[in-house]
Amino acid sequence: MIEEFGEENYVRWLDDQNIAVRSMTEARRVVNTLTRSLSSQRLTVNSGKTKFLTPEKVLVHFQLDANAEIDSWDSKFKDFENVSKARRALNDLWQRISAEDNVQVGNWGKILKRMYAASTKANSDLLERRALEDLVEYPELDERIFQYFAKRNRGDALLKLFSDYCAAGENLFEGTESVFFESLLLLDPGVALAPKLRQLALQFASASALGQSGKPLGRASALLAVYWLGESGSALASIFNLEAARRLPKEVARAWIATVTALNPSLLRQLQSKLVGHPSDDVARLSSFLSGLLNGTIGKLGNYKNQRSRWPLPGKFYDARSWLTLHLASSSLHEGLRATLRRDLKSFQALVRTIPEKRIAVTINRRLGRAGHP
Questions:
Q1: Residue 277: pLDDT over 50
Q2: Rounded to whole angstroms, how far apart are CA atoms 287 and 275?
Q3: pTM of the predicted model, to two decimals?
Q4: How far is CA 328 from CA 236, 244, 295, in A?
Q5: Does residue 72 contact residue 90 with C-beta atoms inside 8 Å?
């Protein structure tokens, strides 16, 4: 494409390509050249995303004015010395750009994505009332919208948003279910909210919830949320009987056996007996690994410590899967591994903030403080 149209006229971001031309005739030649070039690699041009834009339309399509306003706000309130002032400025910014004629035109979804991030940073309720509408209209924003609530610890509002979304029959995507339950892992829920979240997660995990897709990724993430939100190992072990366990998708079976074993290692054999005859080799391998981990034949773990940024908020944290791995390994009989885990736990505890983190940290500390099997 550079050879055909000049390096100065060609810009590429991953699979998005922008080519500057002087006429519509040359624009059509670009599409023809792209089509022939891609077909040689058995690829095709995405016709739905192929557009001819004049300079005036570029301004509108790429939402350049709105992006510039958000850039200015980001730059001005980078350090957030005055949150109230930043919040007021963000409200004024939104009033201006949401009143323009190019709302919902071109890259408007990307403007919304940036606004949800800015509203999270400013701890603003600016977009809460439109969140359901945006989730339906722009499902690709699901993670950003859910995190907007979760990172501000608006758990009740987050639960209502997702419940309303499912009740309206709009929950069409397995990935949306998954990122919802992943967002619950960012909450610091109180004693009244946690049981409500656990109940919903249990319903999804057992495929009995209203409006769910029933697909495995959402159910597996729901199981992780159940674990994280304080369910007991025995209650979690009982949600699938012998017949249901052997028919579980591998993703769900793996999440089930891992979370139950972390909560109560003595239940591993019970789950293994339920999963006898399960067709997935992945489930069998995980089962074997957990047995080796607990009986002390496994003395080393790979790099399981995934430290993540709380962006756009300050600070870092260890994700729930890292905690789950540490929780599982804390029941090991291998003294060398236990010594390593004690050192690891110190780095985890340094970043603890939420009630789920504190609860799991206490359990791990108690297990690792004992000699031999916990």
A1: yes
A2: 9
A3: 0.90
A4: 15, 24, 12
A5: no
